[in-house]
Design a protein that fits this description.
The complex is a heterodimer of chains A (322) and B (426). With 322 residues, chain A is of the alpha/beta class. Chain A folds into 2 domains: 155 residues, Aspartate/ornithine carbamoyltransferase (Rossmann fold, 3-Layer(aba) Sandwich); 153 residues, Aspartate/ornithine carbamoyltransferase (Rossmann fold). Chain A contains 13 helices and 9 strands. Classes of the chains: A alpha/beta (322), B alpha/beta (426).
């Protein structure tokens, strides 16, 4: 398919990491296996490996982020790269500089990798087409389109708890319409062979034609959670809680909030995930978020290892196959 | 000048003529067909063997970008490009800067067009002052200076009461109103058709309802005012039924479809390529098929290039951040001919939709290859293949998703009022 040509080089090796869509299962598995090896690094006294020594990584954030930017920064530093954080929101773009011009300037600084977050869907792909042949681009979230490293750390977390993807029922709950995380999760789960993926939410938060991505649509949390192995909650943005999409955060919690009672519909050993930051009492009850089925904090820890895997693979310093 | 167009196949929808016949021109008028008029000594003979000779095309609503955005295109560059692609008349939309809402701006456009070897230009004036949607434009003055109609180009009115009055006022003056059927509330956030493809790409969508509601509202108000209206560039299959029903109840409405919307669908939007970004958006394959059928059957009268040239920077960015619009002149004829070759549209009807109907909508003299008719003529080779590249394009705007594609069908010569304004060098 179209996207392969830009994400993979002529030998099928990862060059840019822009979207999960169209990537082969073997590559996703390699990311997870590499990440597994990197989790050990975090437990050592010296938390560094020299895989990206001498490389310059620029975190190019056109949209605010704390957790994603921090874990990318940590991942790059543990790989021994030099890291620069650029908050473009507050600089060039505000002065009217075009994205293409910002890029040319940064490339002139001999950057090896851009980690990009942008409010426009497709921006990292646009950037990947602009940069020179030696430069890699990693998508850290673009518009509503994709957040592939988040999806991979979710897959990593699921694999740690559930092992076999091909026997799972997974529910993705909440604001799918505006969620790049949900889209990437759906592609990753599909590619890894999950037989049943459900999206659950009110009609205002489930986008038209989502079935075409291979999911079942549920408008009731009770039925949507019935018998699932994994519950993936989505964050509800503050500005959408009281809008033409939803009447209030309170009513949302009442109808689609994940409470202990509702969670009992899922399998007893089901895990609960959330990309964070969580809205307690809106999409999730504190008793669930802090409960024994929650793996939310583990997700964050796994994020570093998964990002190390993706970055080192894109720079050609880690194995491309398991 | 006396000119003979020799050996071409004349395809003329008005007379339903389709035969190989010579055309004789004197001054701005066709003075004979077939037999050489007595004593006729042509100064030029255009060899049209193997070519099709038809009335020149009329574009009902192009962006020429001048005044105000000359870094994208100019009146001269686009009128020349139009002629090189078989257009003899081009209507200029009023959303220039300054807006075409006073006679002075119309005069400016006409003055810039003077001396250009290209298509002739006609202005469509603003419906409301500065296209602001609240105060009526001086439509009587715009009509007097020669505007062929009025429009709120690209700025569909939010306030239905203003539209109601604007239509009534235009009806008073017997002015055609060119409408973009669009509910601005439903389209505000979007940049492509809302559906499975926009969902997969994570691009905010413009639902079909935006066009249908806009169309429904406009038709109700047209019924009240009795104004004559032309709907520019319908994109939804269901819109055709709305327009059909309105026509049946006696409303004076006509409609056009854009060649891009007949050639592509939302599924073609690959890799977030901003060259596919156009307003109104490319719809589904089903819509596309219905629009083609509507055009073939005459339920939609006019085929338009929906020509919107841009500079390269306007398209250099992620899809949603790019300017909407496709530079349409250069691929118009080959795209139209590919519908003909695929058997979806017969040649006579295609020329009717590109030349005869738009001329009628803007009140031009009938577009026909007939004795005593105005010599606005396009001569094209339906079989010539060529590649659409930045170099082969005449428009200054190179913004088209078809760049690099092979085209079949190419204009050989264009005559405006008996004057050869374009002739392809062999």
């Amino acid at each position: 398919m179209a996207n392969d040509s830009i994400q993979l080089d002529s030998q099928g090796r990862l060059k840019h990491f822009l979207t999960i869509e169209h990537l082969p299962k073997s590559l996703l598995t390699a990311i997870l296996d590499n990440a597994e090896r990197f989790t050990v690094v975090g437990d050592r006294a010296v938390k560094k490996v020299p895989l990206l020594r001498g490389k310059t990584v620029v975190n190019l954030f056109f949209e605010p982020s704390t957790r994603t930017r921090t874990t990318f920064e940590l991942a790059a530093k543990r790989l021994s790269a030099d890291v620069m954080n650029l908050n473009i929101e507050a600089s060039a773009a505000k002065k009217g500089e075009s994205l293409a011009d910002t890029l040319r300037t940064l490339e002139a600084m001999q950057t090896d990798m851009f980690v990009v977050r942008h409010h426009e869907s497709g921006a990292p792909e646009f950037i990947a087409r602009q940069v020179g042949p030696e430069v890699s681009v990693i998508n850290a979230g673009d518009g509503r389109h994709a957040h592939p490293t988040q999806a991979m750390l979710d897959m990593f977390t699921i694999r740690r708890y559930k092992r076999d993807f091909t026997r799972l029922k997974v529910a993705i709950v909440g604001d799918v319409a505006h969620s790049r995380v949900a889209r990437s999760e759906i592609h990753a789960l599909t590619t890894l062979g999950v037989p049943e993926i459900r999206v659950v939410g009110p009609k205002t938060l489930l986008p038209r034609g989502i079935e075409a991505m291979g999911v079942d649509v549920h408008h009731s949390l009770e039925t949507g959670l019935e018998g699932v192995d994994v519950v993936m909650m989505l964050r509800l943005q503050q500005e959408r809680m009281q809008s033409a999409l939803l009447p209030s955060g309170h009513e949302y919690f009442h109808t689609f909030g994940l409470t202990p009672a509702r969670l009992r519909r899922a399998k007893p050993d089901a895990i609960v995930m959330h990309p964070g930051p969580i809205n307690r009492g809106v999409e999730i009850d504190s008793a669930v978020a802090d409960g024994k089925q929650s793996v939310i904090l583990q997700q964050v820890t796994h994020g570093i290892a998964v990002r190390m895997a993706v970055m080192s693979m894109a720079m050609g310093t880690a194995a491309q196959a398991s | 000048m006396k000119i003979t167009i020799s050996g071409g196949r004349v395809v003329d929808p008005v007379s339903q003529r389709d035969e190989v016949v010579d055309v004789f021109i004197d001054g701005d008028t066709i003075i004979g067909l077939g037999r050489t008029p007595a004593g006729f000594k042509p100064a030029r003979v255009l060899d049209a063997k193997g070519a099709i000779v038809c009335p020149g095309f009329t574009e009902v609503g192009a962006r020429l970008r001048e005044p105000g955005a000359e870094h994208k295109a100019t009146i001269a560059s686009e009128l020349e490009a139009a002629a090189a692609n078989g257009f003899t008349t081009v209507c200029c939309m009023p959303d220039t800067n300054p807006v075409i809402d006073t006679p002075a701006v119309v005069e400016l456009v006409n003055q810039r067009a003077r001396g250009v070897r290209g298509a002739r230009v006609r202005c469509i004036g603003a419906l409301t002052h500065a296209l602001g949607g609240s105060v009526l434009a001086e439509m009587a003055a715009l009509k007097e200076i020669g505007c062929v109609g009025v429009a709120n180009a690209g700025h569909p009115l939010r306030d239905s009461n203003v539209l109601k009055n604007a239509l009534a006022y235009a009806a008073t003056l017997d002015l055609t109103v060119f409408l973009d059927a669009e509910d601005p509330w439903l389209s505000a956030q979007g940049c492509m058709h809302e559906g499975a493809v926009s969902t997969r790409l994570g691009l905010p969508g413009i639902p079909a309802a935006a066009e249908l509601i806009g169309l429904g509202r406009d038709l109700v108000l047209l019924e009240d005012s009795g104004a004559r209206a032309h709907f520019r560039t319908l994109t939804c299959g269901r819109s055709i039924k709305y327009v059909n029903n309105a026509r049946k109840t006696g409303l004076e409405v006509s409609a056009s479809v854009g060649i891009a919307h007949l050639s592509m669908s939302d599924e073609d939007i690959a890799r977030f390529d901003g060259h596919f970004h156009v307003r109104p958006p490319l719809r589904t394959r089903r819509d596309r098929a219905r629009l083609i059928r509507g055009l073939a059957e005459g339920q939609v009268e006019v085929l338009t290039a929906h020509h919107e040239p841009h500079d390269a920077d306007a398209k250099a960015g992620p899809f949603g951040a790019t300017a909407a619009g496709i530079s349409g002149f250069d691929s118009f004829l080959p795209s139209m001919m590919s519908l003909v070759e695929a058997g979806n549209l017969d040649l006579m009807r295609a020329i009717d939709a590109a030349a005869v109907q738009p001329a009628r909508v803007i009140g031009n003299p009938p577009a026909t290859i007939a004795v005593d008719g105005l010599a606005d003529i396009c001569v094209f080779d339906p079989a010539e293949t060529w590649q659409l590249t930045a170099d082969t394009m005449w428009s200054r705007g190179k913004n088209t998703p078809l760049l690099g594609r092979n085209m079949r069908g190419r204009v050989l010569a264009t005559l405006v009022g008996g004057r050869i304004v374009f002739e392809r060098k062999a």
